[in-house]
Amino acid sequence: MSDAANSASAAAHVDGAPLEAAPKAADSLEVIRKFAETYAKRTGTYFCSDPGVTAVVLEGLARHKDELGGALCPCRHYEDKEAEVAQAFWNCPCVPMRERKECHCMLFLTEDNPFRCDSQNISLEDVKSLVAG
Description:
- By secondary structure, this protein is mostly helical.
- It has helices at 3-11, 25-43, 51-68, 81-87, 95-100, 124-132, and strands at residues 13-14, 17-18.
- It is built from six helices and two strands; from the N terminus they run αββααααα.
- Helix 2 packs across helix 3.
């Protein structure tokens, strides 16, 4: 086998096991949900008092992660989503959030925001039921 073939074979396996296919949408939603909870705790921010807002934003981030390869802010309009993901300015957490704690989506709200709740947690079951309507 050539070196290139060996490299390709090694890249397709980790510890002898084949790499998993790209995560399914439900897996991405759970990854994004856990990220959001961790990020909120780390930054001292809170979710919206309307859990439906939090759920819809999380679902949008997960969908963009699956479709575009990056958690692009779902609350903005883009002429070219792929280019925006590559630029990374609006990938969550976006630059305004990282620099000034300004979340356009109302996913991460500062303590003084009247729309924030007291929670930095939301269950996967709640997200799914809120998104389903």
